[in-house]
Design goal:
The complex is a heterodimer of chains A (364) and B (352). Chain A is an alpha/beta fold and 364 residues long. Chain A folds into two domains: 34-137 and 263-290, Response regulator (Rossmann fold), CATH 3.40.50; 139-258 and 296-360, 3-Layer(aba) Sandwich (Rossmann fold). Helices cover 41% and strands 18% of the residues of chain A. Chain A contains twelve helices and 16 strands. Chain A starts with a helix and ends with a strand. Chain B has 14 helices and four strands. With 352 residues, chain B is mainly α. Chain B folds into two domains: 1-40 and 317-352, no CATH class; 65-315, ABC transporter involved in vitamin B12 uptake, BtuC (Orthogonal Bundle), CATH 1.10.3470. Chain B has a two-stranded antiparallel sheet with strand order 1-4. In chain B, strands 2-3 form a two-stranded antiparallel ribbon. The longest helix of chain B has 30 residues, at 113-142. The radius of gyration of chain B is 22 Å and the shape is globular. The chains are: A alpha/beta (364), B mainly alpha (352). At the A-B interface, helix 1, strand 2 and helix 3 of A face helix 1, helix 2, helix 3, helix 6 and helix 10 of B.
C-alpha cells in the first residue's frame, strides 16, 4: 500500500500544477466591494433561525447593492471548525464577520484578538473585545405576548415548550412565555422538554410528542425547525411558532402566532459603521422599540377582541411604560427573585438560570 | 457471457498504482458532473478547493491542524484492524480523551499548573484505552461482536460528554461548555496555527511502524489477522493480543481527543464529537494500515474538509456541495480498492 501513498502525492502535485493558474487571486481593484462574512449555524433553508438571519443579510445586500459583497458559510459546527471558518473568511478579504450562534463566541473572541483589523459581530452571546461586539434582540417581549395568546386558546391551561439548550436566552424566553400565559390564565402551566440540540427535526418532533402525550394543547418552541409545530397541528392542537411566520410556512391557522426576528435592522447599521470607520464595540440588546423583534400576524382563530388586548400590551412594551420581568417575581421553587415595584436588571436577565412560577421543569 | 470477480493470483504492482489513479479520476469526473449540474465550472471549483487547502501559509496550517486528530485516530483504529478487530469506537474513545483531560484540568487542583497538561494527556489516554478495552475483553472472553459494542459505546461517551458540558461540569454564565483550561496548560503552538500535537502524532507514526513491523508482537498481530488458526498453532495468545491491541488502539484515539482539546477548544464543549474517530476508519483503510501512508491520507482527508470551505467562500456554493464532493472522492477510491486484490473475469459461454 506504499504505492497508494506515493500515488496520492503524485496526484496531489499534478492537480496542484494543473489548477495552479486558476488558484491565483486577482489583484484587488480600486472599487472592490466591502466584504462581509456571515457564518450560520444551520442552512438558511431551515426556514428557522438561520433563514431569518439570511433575511437580514439579504436586506443588507439590497440596501448596499454592489457596495458590499457577502460571503456566506452555512452549517458551521460550533467547534474548532468555526474558528477556521472565520479565518477563511478573513483570508478571503472579509472586513466584518457576523456569526449567529451562541457557542461560536469563545472561538470568535480568540480569532478577534488575533485579527485586530477586522470587526466581529457575535449574535446571542456576552463576550466582546475592542473589535468584537455582541448583539441580540429582546425576543422575550414577543414570547410574553405569544404566551398570552397560547393561554387564551388553551382549554386545559396546560402549555408545552420544546427548548433547545438551558442557555439564559432559552430560559428567558420560556419564563416570558409562562408569565404571559399566567397573566391571562393564573392557573396556566408551561411544561418544558429539552432536546439538547438547536437543529434536529426528529428530536424536536419527539419532544413535542412527549408533551402532547401529557394532554398539553399548545406547543411553543425554541428550535430551528417547524417540526414541533407540525406535530401539534397533526394532532389538531395549537402551536406557537418561532423565527419565521410559521402560519404561512406550515399553512395552518392552528399556528396561533410566531415571535419573529428582524436582523437586518442591526446588520445594516453595523456594516455601514464598519465601512465608514465609525464602528464601535458594544453589547447591543434591542427590543421592539428598535424593531429587532416583532410578532407575526395573529391567527384568525384568536378572537378579535383578545387580539386587541395583546396589541395594547405590545404598545406598552413599545413605549417603554412596561416590560416583561416586573416584580414581584417568584421562581418555581417559591423564592422571590425580584421585589415588587421594579424590573429585573439586564444582567440578571442575561444570566438567567431559574424558571418562574408556572413552569414545570428544571433548568439544570 | 457472464462476469465474475476472482482473487488475483499475485498482487499486481501496476494495479496497486493504476486502480487508485483511475478511481481518483472517476471521482473527479463524477464531481465535475455534479458541479456542472449546479452551473459551476468544475475546474474553477477544484482549483478553489486546492487553493483553500494549501493556497497560503494559514490555509496550509489549518489543513495540517485538521489532519492531526485524523492521523491519530487513523493510527489508533489501524492497530485494531491489523488483527481484523473492527474498532469503530474511535469517536467515543476520542471523546473520553477529551473528558479525561478536562477532568484533570478542572478538578485536579492539587497538581501544580505545569503538570496539568502531561497528566491530563495521560489520563485522557488511559480513559480512551479503558473504553476500548471493554469491547476488547468482551470479544476475547465471550466473542461478543465488537462492531456493535464499539459503535454503541460511541453514543454512550458522546451522551456523557454532553451531560458534563451542559450540566455537571458547566462553566457559570450559561456557557455551553466547561471553564477554560489555564493558559499555561494549553498545548503550545509550533508554527502559526499548528500545535505541538503534530510532534506527538509523528512520534506515534514511527513508534507504531517499529512496533508493528519490527517486533515479535507486531508479527503476532499480523498473523492473527491473516491466519488466526496458524497463530494459535504457533502458541500465540489471541485473547491476550486482542485486549492488548484494543488498549493501544483506544489509548491513541483517547490521546487524539485530549491533545486536540488542549490545543484548540481548551475546554470540553459542544462539538467535541467532531467525527474524527469515524474519518479515522477511512484513513486506516485507505492507508492499508501503514502508519507512514496514514500521514498522507490524513492530509488528503483534511484538505477535502478545509478545501470544501473554499467552495462556499470562492464559489458561493452551498455547504452541502462540499460534502457531496467529499463523498464522491471516497466512494470510487474505496470501491476501487477491491480490484487491487481481485480481478474481473469475463467468461464467454461456449456454444453448446
Amino acid at each position: 500500500m506504499k504505492k497508494l501513498s506515493v500515488l496520492l502525492v503524485l496526484l496531489l502535485l499534478s492537480t496542484t500544477l494543473m489548477f495552479a493558474q486558476g488558484g491565483k487571486e486577482a489583484a484587488p481593484a480600486a472599487d472592490e466591494p466591502f466584504k462581509v462574512g456571515v457564518i450560520y449555524i444551520t442552512s438558511p433553508g431551515d426556514m428557522g433561525y438561520s433563514y431569518m438571519h439570511d433575511q437580514g443579510t439579504k436586506a443588507a445586500e439590497a440596501y448596499f447593492g454592489d457596495k458590499i459583497e457577502v460571503i456566506r458559510m452555512e452549517n458551521v459546527p460550533e467547534n474548532d471548525a468555526s474558528a477556521r471558518a472565520m479565518e477563511q473568511l478573513i483570508d478571503a478579504g472579509a472586513k466584518i464577520v457576523f456569526a449567529n450562534s451562541y457557542n461560536y463566541q469563545d472561538y470568535m473572541l480568540q480569532v478577534a484578538k488575533e485579527n485586530p483589523d477586522v470587526y466581529f459581530e457575535h449574535c446571542s452571546g456576552y463576550l466582546s473585545n475592542e473589535n468584537m461586539s455582541n448583539y441580540f434582540g429582546r425576543m422575550y417581549q414577543m414570547r410574553y405576548l405569544s404566551g398570552m395568546i397560547a393561554a387564551k386558546m388553551s382549554p386545559s391551561g396546560k402549555l408545552g415548550y420544546v427548548g433547545a439548550f438551558n442557555t439564559p436566552e432559552v430560559v428567558r424566553g420560556i419564563n416570558a412565555f409562562a408569565l404571559g400565559a399566567r397573566a391571562v390564565n393564573p392557573k396556566a402551566t408551561t411544561t418544558v422538554v429539552w432536546t439538547n440540540t438547536w437543529y434536529d427535526p426528529s428530536l424536536e418532533r419527539q419532544g413535542a410528542i412527549a408533551l402532547l402525550d401529557q394532554g398539553i394543547d399548545v406547543i411553543a418552541q425554541h428550535q430551528d425547525t417547524t417540526e414541533p409545530a407540525k406535530a401539534a397541528i397533526e394532532r389538531g392542537k395549537y402551536a406557537v411558532g418561532y423565527n419565521a411566520d410559521f402560519r404561512s410556512v406550515v399553512g395552518s391557522d392552528n399556528v396561533l402566532v410566531s415571535p419573529m426576528w428582524d436582523w437586518g435592522n442591526y446588520m445594516i447599521p453595523a456594516i455601514e459603521s464598519a465601512m465608514n470607520g465609525t464602528w464601535k464595540s458594544q453589547a447591543y440588546w434591542g427590543g421592539l422599540e428598535d424593531k429587532m423583534v416583532h410578532l407575526s400576524p395573529i391567527s384568525p382563530l384568536v378572537p378579535k377582541d383578545f387580539q386587541d388586548v395583546v396589541m395594547a400590551k405590545q404598545a406598552e412594551i413599545a413605549n417603554g411604560t412596561w416590560d416583561v420581568f416586573w416584580g414581584p417575581l417568584k421562581d418555581n421553587t417559591g423564592a422571590v427573585r425580584q421585589q415588587a415595584g421594579g424590573k429585573l436588571a439586564d444582567d440578571k436577565m442575561l444570566t438567567m438560570d431559574w424558571f418562574v412560577e408556572g413552569v414545570i421543569g428544571s433548568v439544570k | 457471457m457472464r462476469i465474475v470477480v476472482e482473487k488475483r493470483d499475485n498482487k499486481s504492482k501496476s494495479a496497486a498504482v493504476l486502480i487508485p489513479l483511475a478511481s481518483f479520476a472517476i471521482s473527479l469526473i463524477l464531481g465535475a458532473i455534479v458541479l456542472l449540474a449546479s452551473r459551476s465550472n468544475p475546474l474553477q471549483a477544484y482549483s478553489a478547493m486546492l487553493d483553500g487547502a494549501f493556497g497560503n501559509a494559514r490555509r496550509f496550517q489549518y489543513t495540517i491542524v485538521e489532519s492531526i486528530p485524523l492521523l491519530m485516530c487513523g493510527l489508533g483504529v489501524g492497530v485494531a484492524f491489523r488483527l481484523k478487530f473492527w474498532n469503530i469506537g474511535a469517536e467515543g474513545q476520542y471523546v473520553w480523551g477529551a473528558i479525561g483531560i478536562t477532568w484533570v484540568m478542572q478538578f485536579w487542583k492539587f497538581l501544580p499548573v505545569p503538570m496539568l497538561l502531561p497528566i491530563g494527556l495521560l489520563v485522557g489516554m488511559t480513559l480512551g484505552a479503558v473504553w476500548a478495552g471493554v469491547p476488547g475483553y468482551l470479544k476475547a472472553q465471550w466473542s461478543v461482536d465488537e462492531t456493535l459494542t464499539t459503535l454503541m459505546l460511541n453514543y454512550v461517551a458522546i451522551g456523557l460528554a454532553e451531560y458534563l458540558y451542559i450540566s455537571a461540569w458547566k462553566a457559570p454564565l450559561g456557557n455551553m461548555g466547561t471553564p477554560e483550561f489555564p493558559h499555561e496548560a494549553w498545548l503550545p503552538p509550533v508554527w502559526g496555527k499548528i500545535h505541538s500535537g503534530l510532534y506527538i502524532a509523528l512520534a506515534f507514526v514511527v513508534l507504531l511502524w517499529f512496533l508493528l513491523y519490527k517486533t515479535r508482537w507486531g508479527f503476532e498481530l499480523n498473523m492473527i489477522g491473516k491466519n488466526p488458526r496458524a497463530a494459535r498453532y504457533q502458541g500465540v495468545s489471541i485473547k491476550r493480543n486482542i485486549v492488548l491491541a484494543m488498549l493501544l488502539s483506544g489509548a491513541i484515539c483517547g490521546l487524539a481527543g485530549s491533545m486536540n482539546t488542549a490545543a484548540i477548544a481548551h475546554r470540553l464543549t459542544k462539538g467535541v464529537d467532531g467525527g474524527y474517530g469515524f474519518t479515522g476508519i477511512i484513513i486506516a483503510w485507505m492507508a492499508g494500515l501503514n502508519p507512514f501512508a496514514s500521514i498522507l491520507v490524513a492530509i488528503v482527508m483534511a484538505a477535502l474538509t478545509t478545501g470544501a470551505d473554499a467552495l462556499q467562500i470562492a464559489m458561493k456554493l452551498p455547504e452541502s456541495m462540499g460534502e457531496v464532493l467529499q463523498g464522491l472522492v471516497l466512494i470510487p477510491l474505496l470501491a476501487g480498492s477491491i480490484f487491487v486484490e481481485h480481478k474481473l473475469k469475463v467468461i464467454k459461454k461456449e456454444a453448446a
